[in-house]
Amino acid sequence: MPYWGQMGFQDSSSPMMGYITGVHDWIMIVVLVVVSIVMYVLGGMMLTKGWDRFLVSAETLEFIWAGLPAISLGLLAIPSLHCLYLMEEAYSPFLSFKVVGHQWYWSYEYSDYSNLEFDSYMLSQDSLFRLLEVDNAVAIPMDCEVRVLVTSGDVIHSWTVPSMGVKSDAIPGRLNQLVLIGSKLGSYYGQCSEMCGANHSFMPIKVDVLTKDLFMNWLLQ
Fold first, then answer.
1. CATH of 95-220, one of 2.60.40.420, 3.30.830.10, 3.40.50.300, 3.40.50.2300
2. Cβ–Cβ under 8 Å, residues 175 and 184
3. Which of 48, 118, 147, 176 is a plausible cystine mate for 96, CB 3.0–4.6 Å?
4. What is the mean pLDDT of each run of 10 residues along the chain (221 residues)?
5. Distance from CA of residue 20 to its chain's centroid?
6. pTM for the complete prediction?
């Protein structure tokens, strides 16, 4: 859960969110090194007069300032592309469910084990967390790969759970796929992250991560 004044990421509740946090930290390290080098060179140029008055050609220097940016971009691109690939590829999902966005609620369809379909609306009264509690939460088993298919029935929405590191646009007439893995038991919240009309702020998402036994009992209810 986010808290008031929070500046960083929410605590990770999935392996993917942990990977995203690691990629972010690595990018910040590379950016810090690049900015430090640039500031050092600029400071030297400003404080040392005439340091380049005899500089006519410098092939080595040209090679360095062409090679270092290429290396820096490679250090940023490789983990980023790997992270994007892992977010969308489901190798052997334990189950799949479909998310359909509507103005202004979510519909969920479980078709692997039973014809389970339900709508999820925000609770307006007697809710534990304001604007986040719903009447019907989606449930997944812990430590299992879950494939989520996201689409929309009217306008563009976005199904987002920040602590799990997942965000996918719900586009009418198109199915988007993402992978969801819950590594900690509990309830995790999100909201629609695409402006979709007057009640855009009232489309919360709640994901309950359960043990396999509790999940099977939930399916049978």
1. 2.60.40.420
2. no
3. 147
4. 73 83 89 89 77 69 83 87 79 88 92 83 78 89 90 92 89 90 89 90 92 88 76
5. 8
6. 0.78
